[in-house]
Structures are given as structure tokens and as C-alpha cells.
Design goal:
alpha+beta, hypothetical protein PF0899 fold
């Protein structure tokens, strides 16, 4: 009886041990498979994160390069424009400024314009002249210009005009501007293409 009981106990023990081992092996296999699945997912996520980071970095690099190219082109264009403006202004200032500040030259131009008005206009005329040339031009306007037009001319002198003059009917309906600024703008427009080609081969 004791032997049968021992055999039964041993048998139960062996079966329990066997089932425990099987259960343990099953749990261990499930844990291994779960770990493998998690590891696979983690690797996939890591690859996705890396790919996204590389894409974002490439996009940022492209944007930065594009912005740098645009900024560089704009800076170059602005620099060329500044150089062009300086060159054109220097040429125009030196030549035009000197010519339109010469009282004798101004007198010649004023007479030519006044003769045209004399032939075509009956309205009273008004002249606007540089204040710094008042002593040289005022007697000329009162005598010579009045004589050409056959009527008195209203002459005003202002600091706003450095050289040249403006002429037109007293009623202000229109005027002809032959000031240094007018000529500089006009000459500048003709000089710019030539200057640009000369300086920048454009």
C-alpha cells in the first residue's frame, strides 16, 4: 500500500513537473515571440523616424540653400544697382550740374525757349530760376527775355532748383521743366543700359 501511494505520488509529481515544464516552455516561447514582435516594431519605427528625420533634414537643407541663393541674388542685384546709381549720378552730376549752373549757357537756353513761347503763346509767362544765380539772371530776364516776348516776364528765384529753370504760363496750366534734376533723370535713363553693360556685361 505504501509502495502504491509512493508510486502515485511520484506519478503525480512527474506529471505536474512535466506540465509545468510544458507551460513554462509555452510561456517562454510566447514571451520570446512577443519580444521579437516588439523588437521588429521598434526597428520599423526607428527606420521610419530616421527616414522622416532624413527627409526633414533634406527639405531644410534645400530650403536653406534656396533662401541663401535668393538672398545672394538680391544682395548682388542691390549692390549692382547701387554701383550703377553712383556711376550714373556722378557722370550726370558732373556734366549736367556744371552746364546748368553756367549763367551764360542758361541764358542761351532761356532765350531759345522764350522765342518759341513768343511765336506760339500769348499768355503771360513765369520763370522759376536758381536763387544762387539771381544776381546774374534777374537783369537778363527783365531786359532780354522781356524784349523777346514783347511783354514782362515774372521771374522767381528758389533754393529748390540748383541749376536750370522752369517756365510756363502764370496760370500754372502747365510748365516746361529744364532743371538739373530733370536732365539728370533723362540722361540717367539713357546712361543706365550702357553703364550696366559696361560694368556687369549684361
Amino acid at each position: 500500500m505504501q509502495n502504491k501511494l509512493q508510486e502515485l505520488t511520484d506519478k503525480l509529481y512527474e506529471e505536474g513537473l512535466s506540465k509545468g515544464k510544458e507551460e513554462g516552455a509555452r510561456i517562454l516561447e510566447e514571451a520570446r515571440q512577443e519580444a521579437e514582435r516588439i523588437l521588429t516594431e521598434a526597428r520599423k519605427e526607428a527606420r521610419n523616424i530616421q527616414a522622416e528625420a532624413e527627409r526633414a533634414a533634406a527639405e531644410m537643407k534645400s530650403k536653406v540653400e534656396s533662401d541663401l541663393k535668393m538672398a545672394s541674388a538680391q544682395t548682388l542685384q542691390a549692390t549692382r544697382q547701387d554701383i550703377e546709381n553712383l556711376v550714373v549720378a556722378r557722370i550726370a552730376d558732373d556734366k549736367i550740374g556744371a552746364a546748368l549752373s553756367d549763367p551764360d549757357f542758361l541764358k542761351q537756353i532761356i532765350l531759345v525757349v522764350a522765342q518759341q513761347f513768343s511765336a506760339q503763346e500769348s499768355a503771360d509767362l513765369s520763370l522759376l530760376l536758381p536763387e544762387r544765380l539771381q544776381s546774374q539772371l534777374e537783369p537778363f530776364v527783365q531786359n532780354e527775355v522781356t524784349k523777346v516776348l514783347g511783354q514782362e516776364v515774372s521771374a522767381a528765384f528758389t533754393k529748390k532748383i540748383a541749376g536750370g529753370f522752369r517756365i510756363g504760363p502764370k496760370d500754372g496750366s502747365y510748365f516746361i521743366s529744364l532743371t538739373d534734376d530733370t536732365f539728370k533723370g533723362l540722361i540717367g535713363e539713357y546712361l543706365r543700359p550702357v553703364t550696366r553693360k559696361f560694368l556687369f556685361e549684361q
